[in-house]
Design a protein that fits this description.
It is a single chain. Helices cover 27% and strands 39% of the residues. It has a 4-stranded antiparallel beta sheet. A hairpin with a 6-residue loop joins strand 2 and strand 3. The chain has 77 residues and is of the alpha+beta class.
């Protein structure tokens, strides 16, 4: 299992549309609006890091209104 927290910047006025689109993705387990540098944070859970990369690049960044993403990957101690 691979876990990623994706911080997302969105074009002004498109926050709700992007939120709704992200919420419909099966890989997004949790999603929260933020105030500050980023507008949304999505918890993405997939089988491996290759799949995480695919979700971020081909699904999240492809959403109209997404300006920038930063992905933080989960780790184990």
């Amino acid at each position: 299992m691979a876990l990623g927290f994706v911080l997302i910047k969105v074009s002004p006025g498109k926050e709700r549309k992007v939120y709704d689109t992200l919420a419909s993705l099966e890989e997004v387990e949790e999603l929260y609006p933020l105030f500050g540098e980023y507008d949304l944070i999505a918890k993405v859970v997939v089988r491996n890091f290759e799949e995480l990369s695919d979700v971020v690049v081909n699904k999240i960044r492809a959403i109209d209104g997404v300006i920038e993403t930063k992905t933080l990957t989960g780790a184990k101690f």
